[in-house]
């Protein structure tokens, strides 16, 4: 290897270290996400839902204001209500998890809607999402699963 290659390799290691420090500084501590799943979309659908449980082990409320992911053109926070026996979904500005509590996000409650697939989802694959919160970024790996009827 030439000196130039060693310099380039050293620069890469420095950038990785800085990235790790920045990630640690911007990532939410005391926040965990469990059982994250994205539902296989129905045939010819351009959107799908998800479910996950968020554990807020911190002393302050966790406020989710945005979700991003490279596999989707648009991601929205939604809530579901029932009126006259009919399920109605509508967008919300944020989802809050109280301090020292957990919140299950499901299609029948608050949840994340994923729209405009950049490529088809495959059953069993893992998809990365990032929750943007008042406590920093929360990285989520969700598995693509079939929608089960319950």
Radius of gyration: 19 Å
Distance between the termini: 60 Å
Would you tell me which CATH topology applies? Immunoglobulin-like
| Helix and strand composition category | alpha+beta
Low-confidence segments, given as residue ranges, are 17-26
Counting DSSP E segments of at least 2 residues, the number of strands comes to 11
Q: Any idea how many domains?
A: 1
User: Helix proportion of residues, in percent?
Assistant: 10-25%
Strand order of the largest sheet: 7-4-10-11-1-3-8
* Strand and helix order: HEEEEEEEEEEE
Name of the level-1 CATH class:
Mainly Beta
CATH superfamily: PCu(A)C copper chaperone
> What average pLDDT do the residues reach?
85
CATH architect. name: Sandwich
Strand share of the residues? Answer: over 45%
Number of helices: 1
Task: Name the overall outline.
Answer: globular
Biggest β-sheet description: 7 strands, mixed
InterPro entries: LpqE-like, Lxx211020-like, PCuAC_sf
Signal peptide: 1-24
Pfam families: PCuAC
Protein name: Copper chaperone PCu(A)C
């Amino acid at each position: 290897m030439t000196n130039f290659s060693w310099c380039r390799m050293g620069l890469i290691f420095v950038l990785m270290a800085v990235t790790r420090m920045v990630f640690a500084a911007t990532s939410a501590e005391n926040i965990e996400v469990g059982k994250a799943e994205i539902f296989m979309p129905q045939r010819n659908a351009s959107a799908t839902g998800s479910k996950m449980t968020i554990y807020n082990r911190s002393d302050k409320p966790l406020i989710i204001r945005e979700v991003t992911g490279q596999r989707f053109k648009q991601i929205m926070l939604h809530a579901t209500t029932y009126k006259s026996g009919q399920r109605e979904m509508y967008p919300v500005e944020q989802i809050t998890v109280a301090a020292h509590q957990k919140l299950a996000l499901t299609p029948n409650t608050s949840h994340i809607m994923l729209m405009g697939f950049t490529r088809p989802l495959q059953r069993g694959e893992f998809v990365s999402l990032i929750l943007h919160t008042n406590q920093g970024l929360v990285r989520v790996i969700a598995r693509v699963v079939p929608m089960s009827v319950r």
